[in-house]
Amino acid sequence: MSKTKNAALDANGFRKFGIRDNLAYAAGDFGCNMSFALKGTMVIFWTQFMKMDSMVYAGLFLICQVWDAINDPLIGSIVDADRRKYKRNKFLAYIWFGSLGLLVAGALCFVPWPSAPAMAKNIIFVCGYVLWDAFYTVANVPYGSLLSLISEDAGDRASLSAWRSVGSLVGQMATMAILPMLIYDENNNIVGTRVFFTALVMGFFGFLAFQFMIRNTVIRVNENVKCSEERQKFNVLHAMKNFMKNRPAVGATLAAMGMFLGMQGATAASTVMFQSYFNNVRISGLVAMFVMIPIILFTPLARKMVTKYGKKELAVVGSVVSVAACTLMLVLPITPDGKGIAIFIGCQFINSLGMGIYSTVSWSMMGDAIDYNEWKNNSREEGTVYSLHSFFRKLAQGFGPSLALVIMSFLGYVEANEGNQTFEVALRMRYLVAALYLTSAVLQFIGLAIIYNLDKKTLATMQKELDERRDTANA
Length: 475
Fold this sequence. Notes:
CATH class: Mainly Alpha
Number of domains: 1
Radius of gyration: 22 Å
Oligomer: single chain
CATH superfamily: MFS general substrate transporter like domains
Strand content: under 5%
Shape: globular
Helix content: over 70%
């Protein structure tokens, strides 16, 4: 009996890393996506159902997103500076609290009151978004930081990153396929009350997913590891300076910003395209779900391919594939019929393959960037490094949709027309979607191929030197 029990433990007495860790970490991102998935619906909800002026929405959303971005490093620095003793782990404690608030916070962004005065709408939007963001940040920032603490093995981290993508994809695909059928009517118009109650249900499922993750996560890396004889007092400004000198963190962050500029920026234009160009918004979710298939197919191969080729090397190949696919999306004749939809799906399918290669290793690359910070600066600062990464991602998530909405208005989009834009406007949306995705792919290539500098050889050297340094510090 004791032999069986010992066989299940590693050299440090922790449960051996395995599928349970992967499933738990995947459940965390599934929980995040249950809250995050409806965010792409906000622009249509507020401009078409709530009748908020597009420029007012763009301005308010950008302000909220800037606060959202600032909020991340603040929360990250609080987590890093927190030296209190927790029963299991401080990151898990913060996640538990955040997940509790997310039960209802998402629905507060979709209070269905279209007859409210304009100022009341502005207040409801800002207050609902800020409250949701506060709880989301408290849960999400510590969750991202956990990857570097669950295991320090490169293969394990690649596996966790891949399974995080699985959790994200399952959450995205489920909502992508079902949401358009639930929240749009037969005239391609959004129904506000449906969105509100759907958000409540998704909040409940997200809470359950977080609880599963918390109960099944094992911390194997000492978060308080000392890299020098004297532990320096935490300084957030110093940590930010270190982040900007951290090339892997900057490169991975630019790539992520590019990805969100395309994904989030193109959401509203893509919805309008399906509403008024293809005249069937309900199938948009099925199309989005279908093009996610390459990411799922690649995920089981991620660990072996990372071991053989390296994370940076794989991610660069993925970005090249995306650039090629998005270029085709821009120049090929995507007509408003079945043939055009098929071409659009084909281009998105190839683009998804490229993003899938990158997304399955993206979080692992940030885990390595945290180690790089320790390697170069003798300080891990998990919470701050990850939260600054999240800060710039969220700037992209705010700037992308706001800029896209401004461009859409310039191109003739009228929110009062709901799903009945003119054909000329719908055609412009078709080209805008392709242009936004191409810009996204190019930024990913620059971040991964030019800035990110942890190739397979350098990563091995870094891990070897860190292991030697830690052994010396703990001797």
